[in-house]
Amino acid sequence: MALEKATDTEIQAFLTKYDAWRMEDGKLHREYIFADFIEAFGFMTKAALLAQSSNHHPEWSNVYKKVVVDLTTHESAGITQLDFELAAKMEQLASPTQD
């Protein structure tokens, strides 16, 4: 059973809270810039483990210190709670105060 698509109000609330994210082509979109390739790839490795544990995987790319992330739930043809949750976890991983 597909998850319910987020409403415009829910999406806007998320974008207000996480202002580095935006909607692009019907997906949650974010670009991260790290100090170097090692930090960027380390972030991707940690995020991949989180994604695998929730069985929800990002569309993403990496060039040197830049990681580009797009989130959507294909089976629901839009943004769902899974996307909000993974994006929030990625923000925690990328936070400079992260232990």
Please give a structural write-up.
This protein is globular. The chain is of the alpha+beta class and 99 residues long. A hairpin with a 2-residue loop joins strand 1 and strand 2. It has 3 helices and 4 strands. It has one domain (8-94): Gyrase A, domain 2, CATH 3.30.1360.20. 23% of the residues are buried. The mean pLDDT is 94. The chain has a 4-stranded antiparallel beta sheet with strand order 1-2-4-3, with helices on one face. It has helices at 8-17, 37-54, 81-94, and strands at 22-24, 27-33, 59-63, 66-71. It is 42% helix and 21% strand.
Short structural summary:
It contains 3 helices and 4 strands, in the order αββαββα. It is an alpha+beta fold.
Give the SSE map.
Elements: H1 8-17, E1 22-24, E2 27-33, H2 37-54, E3 59-63, E4 66-71, H3 81-94
Antiparallel strand pairs: 1-2, 2-4, 3-4
Features:
99 residues, alpha+beta, 3 helices, four-stranded antiparallel sheet, Gyrase A, domain 2, single chain
Approximate helicity band: 40-55%
Strand order across the largest sheet: 1-2-4-3
Oligomer: single chain
The CATH class turns out to be: Alpha Beta
DSSP, total strands:
4
Strand content: 15-25%
Note poorly predicted spans: none
Full CATH superfamily name: Transcriptional coactivator/pterin dehydratase
Compute the CA-based radius of gyration. 13 Å
What do we call the CATH topology? Answer: Gyrase A, domain 2
Q: Report the span from N to C terminus.
A: 37 Å
